[in-house]
Design a protein that fits this description.
CATH class of the largest domain in chain A: Mainly Beta
Shape of chain A: flat
Largest interface: B-C, 67 and 63 residues
Radius of gyration of chain A: 26 Å
Oligomer: homotrimer
Strand content of chain A: 25-35%
CATH topology of the largest domain in chain A: UDP N-Acetylglucosamine Acyltransferase, domain 1
Number of strands of chain A: 37
Strand order of the largest sheet of chain A: 5-8-11-14-17-22-25-28-31-34-36-37
Number of domains of chain A: 3
Distance between the termini of chain A: 83 Å
Number of helices of chain A: 3
Chain lengths: ~325, ~325, ~325
């Protein structure tokens, strides 16, 4: 096999996969050399004859892709243009790219790669096997664990949004933000995502948590382990998420809220109060997704009902009075 | 004429325009030398006497602005600080700014301008007449067509959000993202917008499509031609948009959804299922905007109705029993 | 005192604070040397004995934090790698970091600090005491007042989203964006926020206004003084906000809307029409928050009511016919 490709593009020397009924038409027309099939499609008529039936083709791909697409080899070294602050140190090998700026006392673990133009403020600590894509900025005091990947444009440790509101026409007064931003092991953070430092407490991202692009995490937020936070979700200050929480795209959580372990907030859900462990919520204000769908159903029947009702209410005599 | 200015600021040597009734008060007080007027305002009493009546003043401005505000002339050349990878090549003239980093085998067309600190990964291809404002990052394998403009902080080709969910306390496992990000001709992409590479398939932005700031486009998304995607909209993985689709600001579209040609999703609309060609939808879950407004009307009458109803339901004896 | 810490982490040499009942459990277990207490907790049993009772502990902290955490001293100077355009000038002292690029005729006031890799286009003007964190980009013509802080990744003055819609399959035509982005005194703008230049008019951020991370501000928007704009909020083109307006996280405002002085748009509120001064609104389309909560209450009672109603409507004979 020369590579992996979707059913509609794969050729005789490529591997493809069939995981859902919606791809059956593409499967029947596919020229793929081999197809990983979920069991329910093992005997599907038409399509490539050479099938490997596996319970979860997506998981099987995890083992195959690294063989067909080996990670590019990286070369260790400090680019001549990198600006290294006093007291910065690291465990070889590391790769520090062009135009990188490391502040004073920065500390990098082994196998750390820092992409072009990244800026690490004074005292930033990165663990082992950390990959920073280009253009990451970590403010001073940021602490990052092992095996962490930060994508382009991530900002860690920026000041939280804390002000004493305006009185008598004075501008709002800034509350100094002196906490840290702490990122656990095995975390991945998507492009242009921003995570504020704590105000006095710290902002903490738990081990194994994955954060998508353009997500906003406010000051003093604590996110548990193994959470999945989808694109453009936002978490306001001092909110806590338990372990294994899922936030859908554009979901928002107000400040000082607690979301229980394993809860799921669906796409665009707006959470303004605590959510029980294991709950699935949606809508604004977020409530049980089942209730949201039921309410939608009722609403759509309501125009009709309302008309009948108003007749009923306004003509009581018709009912026997 | 020395320039174009809004009605309230334009002076005797400036051109202004009147396109909507809401600007009539400003028109009457305006000192503009000349005003482009829509036909319905041609005989409007008061205001500047020198009027040019045109069916669409905004469109007329398209022809005038380039005369009064010529595009700044650019100077070709490679800045001495640019880091150029092995095998990178281009068609002269091009302008490559300070602190730009081009990876191996990067290919640029004619009249390409790359702003300060841009980073293009290995094998990135840009067509002719492409303008990259400062701080754009294109991950390896990104392909950009002709006459494309990318604004500051755009990230193309970052990894999609693909994980096998956590089991038994293990961190979620990353699904390698090996597809490309492909941007068609005549596309413009706004500041800090992020567009992921495909997982196995590619992510594709159709020709002539315009994308605003802070938009998120997930892996394997296909956007058709001539779409308009407003600020902070988000499109989750594997969703397809037909040609001429409009997404309003902060609109969100779930994964694996199909939006038909010419459909319109209004501000903040949350799409979780397929949308017909030509439909106009809003709300969450997004449905016909007409139905949303009707449901809102019913809801606002509902408090009153509900009170009357509960009386009716709970006191049936009053109705003759 | 050696520092400030939250109740659960403060030691004998640290100061902490108690502002809300929800922190009482942490207070009782706290080892803090001194606790700033709101008056209602002055005589609270248990917890640290050394208490300073102040009406507003958060405000008291504003005076204490700068003593315990003095701002880092900065050193003036122009880094050797900075690229300075012709005619750029400043009032000493200033600090210009590594890999900064200043365009032609840039003008900086006194005590301006420009972080690593910032790019200021031709003619950009910054007032006195301005702090640019790393990776800020200001397009040409941007004007920034005194005592302004811009966080990492802020983009000021990018082109607004203005196109003449597609006709007959032609790509949409760009309307040239020739206005400016003007930021008043005492403004702070959060990480990765984008503020477009005006189309013909200017985009204006009023004095004392604070903007959080990942906010989008469209062309020709006017924001009044002392507004607070929370994370991921978005404001579409030509909309005006009065003074002292609050936008909650992920709130969105359509184009050409006017929001009155002191109005509050709650988390995720979607404003599509004018809002009165002093109003508090939420939901989509945004309306009085009180009405939204009442409608929610009615909706949740509705499933029950609807069932009873349909019985009532469809069996009118039971009522005496």
């Amino acid at each position: 096999m020369a590579g992996v490709a979707p059913l509609d593009r794969a050729g005789a020397h490529e591997l493809s996969f069939l995981v859902h009924r919606r791809y059956l038409a593409a499967f029947r027309r596919s020229a793929a050399g081999v197809v990983l099939c979920a069991p329910e499609f093992a005997a599907e008529p038409g399509g490539p004859a050479c099938r490997v039936v596996v319970p979860e083709p997506h998981v099987a791909l995890l083992a195959i892709i690294p063989l067909l697409y080996p990670e590019p080899v990286w070369t260790s070294g400090i680019h001549a243009t990198a600006v290294i602050g006093p007291g910065a140190r690291w465990d070889d090998p590391v790769a520090i790219g062009p135009y990188v700026v490391l502040g004073a006392q920065v500390r990098l673990g082994r196998n750390v790669r820092v992409g072009a133009s990244c800026v690490l403020g004074d005292g930033v600590v990165l663990g082992d096997d950390v990959l920073l894509h280009p253009h990451v900025v970590c403010y001073s005091g940021t602490v990052v664990g092992n095996r962490v990947t930060l994508h382009a444009g991530v900002r860690l440790g920026s000041d939280g949004f804390g002000y004493v509101p305006s009185r008598a026409g004075e501008p709002p007064r800034k509350i100094p933000q002196i906490g840290r931003c702490i990122v656990g092991d095995d975390v991945e953070i998507g492009a242009n995502t921003t995570i504020d430092r704590g105000s006095v407490d710290d902002t903490v991202i738990g081990a194994g948590t994955k954060v998508d692009n353009l997500v906003q995490v406010g000051h003093n937020v604590h996110i548990g382990a193994r959470c999945l936070i989808a694109g453009q979700a936002g978490i306001a200050g001092s909110t806590h998420l338990g372990d294994d929480v899922f936030l859908g795209g554009q979901a928002g959580v107000s400040d000082h809220v607690h979301i229980g372990r394993g809860a799921r907030v669906l796409v665009q859900g707006g959470v303004i109060g605590d959510i029980d462990a294991g709950a699935t919520v949606s809508g604004y204000p977020a409530r049980s997704h089942r209730d949201v769908l039921r309410a939608q159903g009722v609403l759509s029947r309501l125009s009709r009902i309302a008309a009948e009702l108003e007749a009923l209410v306004h003509e009581p005599d018709d009912h026997g009075h």
